[in-house]
Amino acid sequence: MSPLAPTAKSSDDASITGEEIKQHMSDVDTDDSILENSEGVTQHELATLRHVRDKIPWPAFTVAVVEFAERWTYYGTTNLYNNYIRAPLPPGSVNGSVAPANRQFGVAGALGMGQEKSFAIGTFNTFFVYITPFIGAILADTKWGRYKTICVFTVVIFLGHIILVASATPVTLQHPQTSLGLLVLAIFVMAVGAGSIKSNVSPLIADQYKGKMRKETLPTGEVVIVSPTITIESVYLYFYMAINLGSTGAISASFLARDNGFWVAYLVPTCIFAVVPIVLFGCRKYYVITPPRGSILLETFRVIGVCLAARWSWNPIAAWRNMVQPGFWDPAKPSSYKAKQIPSRITWDDEFVGEVHRTLEACKVFLFFPIYWLCYSQIDGNLGTVAAGMTLHGTPNDLVKNLDPISIVILIPIFEKLIYPGLRKLGINFSPIKRITAGFFVAGLAMVYAAVLEHYLYELSPCDNHQPSACTTADGEPNAAPLNVWIVAGPYILVAISEIFASITSLEYAYTKAPRRMKSVVMAFASLQTALASALNFALTAVNVEPRFQWLFASFAITATIFAGIFYWTFRDLDRQEVELNLIGTGERDGFVGERAADDAEKAV
C-alpha cells in the first residue's frame, strides 16, 4: 500500500504530547501486551525488571577518538584567545612567551587590546562555531550523509589552523592589525569546519548502536531489560568524556604559549588534528552510515505552512487558540482526505507529519538553554580574568579553565557506573527533563560561588579600582591579591557537574527524540542555543568588564535558578511520558519525501 493512502495512524504519527500519545498507548496498556519495537518485552516486564545498558559497538569508540582530536585542536587554540588578544607582549618577547625569570607571575600575551575586545572576539568565535552546525546538518541530511560531510569539513578545519599559526608568528606579531585580521579569518574558517562537524559527529556515534529493547538473563540468574535508552545515555556520557579529554589539550597549550610563544602553541594542535582523517579513512568500512534523505527542511516548512494556513486568524488571540487546539496537524495529513481529494501540495505521508510534530516538540526543550550557556560562558573568559588577579605561584591563569574538563573526565565514570544505576535500583526515575533541571540549578550555584569569590577579590586586591587582573606595582610587575588561584576551582567543578546533568542530556535528548530523517538538524538546533547565548553575551559586552563581574555573576545565578523552575514546570508532562516517547518511531521505515512520495501518491490514486 502506498504510504500516502488513507490508513490508520502510524506509530510515528503519534506525537509526543496530548491526546495522540494517549491514543497511541491505549492499545498497549495491559500488562501482557508486547511493547512496540521491542523483542518480546511486555508492559509488566518493563515496569518491574531492572534496566541495564547494552554493549557499545567498537566503531562508536573510534568516532569518540575523532571528537577527542577535534576538541583538542579547538580548545588547545581557543583557550589561548583571552591572553592572546587581551595582554600585550611580555617585556622583551617577540612571540608572546614569558622570560624564564618572570614566569612565576608573568602572563603570556600578544596583541594587548584589552579585556573588552578580547571578550567580544571570543564571544564572536563561540557564536559562529555554534551557528554553523546548520551548514553541516543540512548538507548531511539532504546531500552528502554524515560521514562524507565530516570528511569534507575536516579539510576546512586544517585550512583554518594554518591561517591561525600564520597569525601568531613573530614576523606577523610585529604588525598587530595584520595579526588580528588573520586571527579573525582563522576563527571564521575554523568555525565553519568545527560547527559543520559538530552537528554530525554527535548523531554518528549513536548511529553505531542499532539494538532493540529485550530481556536478558545475567550470570547471577537475574532477568533484566537491556535498554537502548540507557545504552544511548552511556554512549553520550563517554562521548562527552572524549570531548573533555580533548579539552585538556589546553593544559599543554597554556605552557607552550608561556614558554615558547603562541605560534608553537597553535602549531601543536594542528599536528594532532592529523589523527582525524587517519581514523575516518581506516574505519570507513565499519561505520553504520546513514544516507541523505532528500530535501527535508523544505518539506518541513511546507507541512508547518499547511497547518498554520488552516488555523490562521488576523485576531492574535483567536489564532493562538486555534493553534493549541487538538488536531492542529490534521490538515497536513493525507489520511485526513479522501484518496482523490488529497491536495497536490501535499507530497508527504502521515508519518512525516508526525516526525515534524515530534521534531518541534523536541526543539522546544532546547529553547531554555541559552540561559544555561550564559552561565557556562563565564568559565571560558571572565573567570580566567578573575584568576589573573590572584596569586598564581607559577600557574598560567588560563590553565585553570582545564579544571572543567578534568572534573568531567573524573566524574562521568562515577555517574555512569554508580550514581545513575544506583538511582535506578532505588526506583528513582531521574529522567532527562529532571537531569536538565538539575543542571540549571547547579549552574546557578556555580555563579553564586563566582560572585562571592569576586567580592573577596575586590576586597583583598592591593588596587582599589576593582580591576585585580590589571593591578601592578610601581615597577609594572603584577601585584596579585593574596588569594591562591586554585580557590577558583569551585565554579569550574560545579559547572562540570551541571554539564553532566544538562549538556550531555541535551545531546541524548536531541538524538532519541528526533526522527531519523532529522537527527543532524535537531542536533544543530540544540547547538544553536549556544550561539544565541553568545549573541546575548555579546549584547552584554559593556557589563562584561572586571569592575562589574560581581553583579554579572550574581545576575546569572538568579536567572539560572528561576529558569530551572520554569523549565521543569513547562515540560513536566514530557517527563511523565519519557518511556512512551522513546518507543515511538523506532521501526525500520525509511520514509522518503518529495518526488518519490508524490509518485507514490499518483499510484495510490
UniProtKB/TrEMBL annotation:
Single GO molecular function: dipeptide transmembrane transporter activity
Gene Ontology CC annotations of this record: plasma membrane
The family this protein is said to belong to: Belongs to the major facilitator superfamily. Proton-dependent oligopeptide transporter (POT/PTR) (TC 2.A.17) family.
Membrane topology: Multi-pass membrane protein
Name of the protein: Peptide/h+ symporter protein
Classification via SUPFAM superfamilies: MFS general substrate transporter
Top-level division of the source organism's lineage: Eukaryota
Transmembrane stretches, start-end: 119-140, 152-173, 179-197, 263-283, 435-452, 485-509, 521-543, 549-571
Matches recorded under PANTHER family: OLIGOPEPTIDE TRANSPORTER-RELATED
Gene3D superfamilies in the record: MFS general substrate transporter like domains (1.20.1250.20)
Subcellular location: Membrane
Keyword list, A-Z: Membrane, Transmembrane, Transmembrane helix, Transport
Keyword Transport: yes
